[in-house]
Design brief:
153 residues, 3-stranded parallel beta sheet, 3 strands, elongated
Length: 153
């Protein structure tokens, strides 16, 4: 959280001078659906969403947008390792395809209505869009990339 504040403080003067800019902070679904473990992480990610919403109002008149992206369960190296370890414990072949591992193990970790984890490419695509001129009217938003996990509105 503090790193984001510091970086934003460094880039804002140039963005204001050019009357254009895009600030995209990365939060987590844990900000909205905090698990029992790591309350510090969930609190920091919730603060990121609130800070971005406030910042969006502050910089809007300068042609700058500020948004947050909140991923849910995403296929990363650490998630792959964890899922494969659990899959092997449950009798899934060590060299099983990712789809087989995911189908077997994901329900143990999260109820994702789409039935799969997100990809890093999907996160990157969302950030690319929010960074573009096409997203010029989107500011103060928290884009959840969670496969439908968030039960709220």
């Amino acid at each position: 959280m503090l790193a984001s504040v510091r970086i934003i403080s460094l880039v804002l003067p140039a963005m204001k001078a050019s009357r254009w800019g895009r600030i995209i902070n990365i939060s987590s679904l844990a900000a909205l659906m905090p698990p029992a473990s790591r309350p510090d992480y969930s609190a920091a990610k919730a603060a990121m969403i609130a800070m971005t919403a406030s910042l969006a109002k502050d910089v809007a008149a300068h042609g700058i947008t500020a948004n947050t992206v909140s991923p849910g369960t995403v296929h990363s190296i650490s998630l792959d390792t964890t899922f494969r370890k659990k899959a092997i414990e449950r009798g899934v072949a060590i060299d099983a395809a990712w789809n087989d591992v995911e189908r077997e193990i994901l329900p143990m970790f999260a109820e994702v209505p789409l039935g799969r984890v997100g990809t890093l490419e999907e996160i990157a695509d969302a950030i690319t869009f929010l960074s573009s001129p096409r997203a010029g009217y989107i500011t103060g938003a928290n884009l959840r990339l969670d496969g439908g996990m968030w039960p709220g509105l």
